[in-house]
Amino acid sequence: MQNSLTSRRNFLKKMAAAAAMTAAASMFPGIIFASEQEANLPKGANLDWKKGPCRFCGVGCGILVGVDQGKAVAVKGDPNCEVNKGLLCVKGYHQIMCTQAKDRLTHALVKKNGRYVQTPIDEALDLVANKMKETITKHGKDSVAMYTSGQSTIPEGYVASKLMKGAIGTNNLDCNARLCMASAVAGFLTTFGADEPMGCYEDIDHADYFITWGNNMAEMHPVLFSRMLEQKNRRGAKIIDFATRTTRSSTASNKSILFEPQTDLAVANAICYEIINNGWVNKSFVENHVNFSKGLTNMGYGLEDKFKFSDKPTKIDFESYKKFLEDYTPEKVAKYSKVSVKDIKYLAAIYGDPNKKVVSYWCMGMNQHTRGTWINNLVYNIHLLTGKISQPGNGPFSLTGQPSACGTAREVGTFTHKLPKGVVTNEKHRRLAAKIWNVPYENIPAKPTYHATEMFRAVDRGDIKFIWTQVTNPLVSLPKTSRYRPGMEKESCFVVVSDVFPTPTSDVADVILPASWHIEKSGLYGNSERRTQHWDKMVDGPGETTPDAWMTIEVAKRMGYGDLFPYSEENHVEEIYNEYRQFHEGAKHGMAPLEVLKEESGAIWPYVDGKSTQWRFNAKYDPACSNDKDFHFYGKPDGKAVIWQRPYEPAAESPDTEYPFWLNTGRVIEHWHTGSMTRRIPVLHKAMPAAYVEFHPDDAKKLGVRNGEKIKVSSRRGSCILPASINERGLPTRGQVFVPFFDENMLINDVTLDAFCPISKEPDYKKCAVKVEKA
Amino acid sequence: MPIKSYLAHPQEGQKEVLMEALSKIDNCEVIPAENKNLLIVVTDTESQTDDEKVKGSIEAIESLKLLAMVSGFNTPKNN
Ligand code: SF4
């Protein structure tokens, strides 16, 4: 390398190399560039490599962080981790670089007379505790709220739940996983009575077909996609991409099938119609292991404040389900889904072939959907009708976005309706929580309060007067931020934000608490395949940065709940995990002891007799099966899973003459969600410096739009100006535009709609109506 | 002042030879894959003419089977 190179040229070169590595990874799955991983190492460094999970996505890759004299200087993939076998994506390799950002939050900041004043952390925590107590005294327990994250560690989520539900006695706790995984949870609970996928990543090594439903895995789950590509190259496994936009995943797949937004509901039903019509039903599986039900229809879209809905399931029989499917013949569905009859039959034939193993993967496309619970149910229907479930290489697999959406949000239960085991509406579950938490049973309210969208509506209305957000950036990630930003700015609500970097959310805070980053604290995450992963603190954080769990504990103590939070600062992670594990004791959800997690790169629950359970509900692999049959869906009282009759219903808002385009929003490989970390990693920021609006070239031509030209995207809620992107990263279908949401300078969520699935309460970020014009 | 990155595919069994040959070219950095038959090449030159010269020298190497410039990241938006 030339000595005269400026640091800018060095960045550009690194970026060029990173780009090549990303390209190489999609062509050569499993490729490792170890020399690059170690390229930045100081000469003669005596590195101590410490293991942990990646900070970013729900794949949960194992990383090794090289520490030299108390500083993290390198990251490489952990070759001993079964998830990634040494491979990382471009975000994973560069993750620790964000800690060097100049604007790191190192001390508490308290707003005084409109200015942020650096304040000792103890004083800031006093203020938070006093404010919370005072608000409760004046306005009642339900006037305070916490909003946490699928990126919170297990101990962080656990103490937040214990403080809010056990100590204070309010269910005003929800988290950003509501925005990404709630439909998956509702889908699992309605179909199986038990949350989280039944299979594991090893399915990839066995499947003949991977069908991805509205899921750009090449960018969002890159390491898993690499593993799939490896199977494609090595043994001819096939990848079928079923989506509304052509992406890097589509081009790397064997076949790409595009559908009109929202019509995945109809296509899934058409696949089931075909399976039944062609006699491909696995009769003995269905007879032994499945019930049929239907629920309410025309559920609405949750657009109004205080919207309420509860489904009313009714049992039906196979014949009435079959009759219902007559509305979904491939011929009828092809008309409005824009999927050809041939392609619908092609998909059905793959699922229907008893000699082919099929895994279905999905993530945000199916979850961020006003009928998210339904579409999850419908894909389960396909697997249940054919009996392709809970076996190596056969199964539906809902992927998570965040690194601990499963481990923390879903398993610890940082949703308003959840407890670490079960739900607040169930007396037995409340009694168990009260016992382990050592609080009076009456403390835990039996009724859920606010889910995420409704929580920020309540802030806007003035019903919530104190909110504490941790590890999340709602004023970039919520839908319809054009309402919720002014809501959070109102004097009526005292806002506390814990974070590592300043964000548009911390901009409206009354108190900003400086959080420790990932490797500056110990913690545990739980990834998409039910794998619990532990890491020990690797380096010290700067200034007065403090782990979120410890800040919650300190506030709890100051509020007078010290007896309930007897943990020590040094060992609180261990102490909390050991307490939490009691909730899940038993064969159905037993969690690995900490000693095991410290040794291994994670363990999959149920962890029984020293062993991870890779395929739940299958008696061959799952010791919790107890019905003396081959499968046991023990989440349901009668041990049977449910095939749901769910119709197609239109989106909450569809293009019309005034707003003629669909707006779809999503992510890019370089950035982690709202970009607060990855935009501070120079290589990633350079690679993708700003958001854009993607057009189909025909639409661009019709509108006379050129690449890079400034375009105003407007909806009935708000607008956003972005440069046009034509034939670059992705290709939306005609009549659709796509915008990534990572860029806080171009807030596309000012434009999106806060419609949600009435069952899961998860908003739909993939469909609303917009107009586009030159800015 | 172009900076470009390429995937360089060696002829069968010639990875080391290609690596060696590439290392001798000025303004050219090589990152070998640990476990696959592939090298990443990053070139950093002062002018378009130099860039073309370097590319020409790389393409003339016998142990090289295919040189593919990386696209995707390398769009106008990324500059
Ligand atoms: S795939 Fe996800 S978990 Fe793995 S390195 Fe990339 S961001 Fe991290």
From TrEMBL, chain A:
The keyword Transport applies. It catalyses: 2 Fe(II)-[cytochrome] + nitrate + 2 H(+) = 2 Fe(III)-[cytochrome] + nitrite + H2O. Mo-bis(molybdopterin guanine dinucleotide) binds at residues 91, 151, 176, 180, 262-264, 364, 368, 473, 498-499, 521, 548, 665-674, 749, 766. The keyword Cell wall biogenesis/degradation does not apply. Gene3D superfamilies: 2.40.40.20, 3.30.200.210, 3.40.50.740, Dimethylsulfoxide Reductase, domain 2. It comes from Flavivirga jejuensis. It comes from the Bacteria. Catalytic subunit of the nitrate reductase complex NapAB. Receives electrons from NapB and catalyzes the reduction of nitrate to nitrite. Keywords: 4Fe-4S, Electron transport, Iron, Iron-sulfur, Metal-binding, Molybdenum, Nitrate assimilation, Oxidoreductase, Periplasm, Signal, Transport. [4Fe-4S] cluster binds at C54, C57, C61, C89. Its EC number is 1.9.6.1. This is Nitrate reductase. Substrate binds at F741. CDD domains: MopB_CT_Nitrate-R-NapA-like, MopB_Nitrate-R-NapA-like. NCBIfam families: TAT_signal_seq. Belongs to the prokaryotic molybdopterin-containing oxidoreductase family. NasA/NapA/NarB subfamily.
TrEMBL record, chain B:
It comes from the Bacteria. This is Uncharacterized protein. It comes from Flavivirga jejuensis.
